[in-house]
Amino acid sequence: MQKQISKNIGLVFLLLSVSCANVKARDDARKSFRENRDEYDLVVTKFQQYRDSLDCAVEVETKCEFSTIDVGIEEALLDKLKVGTLSSDPLVIQFKPVDSIYAKIWYAETKESENYINALPYVNPSAYTLDAIEEQWFLVALDWN
User: What is the DSSP string of the chain?
Assistant: First the structure.
């Protein structure tokens, strides 16, 4: 009986630790977004300018595929916001401003980009939930439900 109680206490402690880390990561990601908003917007603008410079022919259905490295954003900014491309067509950019698996920020350029995000197999109702920060911006949080 004593052993079972110890296991249960350990499990409760683990769940509380994970829950606290999850909440802290979400709060820290939101704080990063508020405090560094100009930098987030700069990254989006750079992505859009790079994509537009490719002059992809829509009528030929050529996709404009490119990576974060192609865009030419300063390495310090890439490291600070941990920028990545989830999709270049439609444009979805991922930011991991906190060193945690629990929270990310995603930018979705269009409604098609939002549909792309929602179609990902690990998003709602699976592992991650989306919380709109504002139009086109989402806090993506690991959900342990």
Answer: -HHHHHHHHHHHHHHHHHHHHHHHHHHHHHHHHHHTHHHHHHHHHHHHHHHHHT---GGGT------HHHHT--HHHHHHHTEEEEEETTEEEEE--SSSSSEEEEEE-SHHHHHHHHHSTTBTTSSEEEEEEETTEEEEEE---
pLDDT digits (tens, 9 = 90+) for 112-121: 999 999 888 8
CB 107 within 8 A of CB 122: no
* Structure confidence by residue, pLDDT tens digits, 56-114: 655 555 567 888 888 989 999 999 999 998 888 889 999 999 988 889 999 999 999 99
Asked whether the beta carbons of 68 and 85 are under 8 A apart, the reply is: yes
User: Nearest CA to 47 among 126, 101, 113?
Assistant: 113
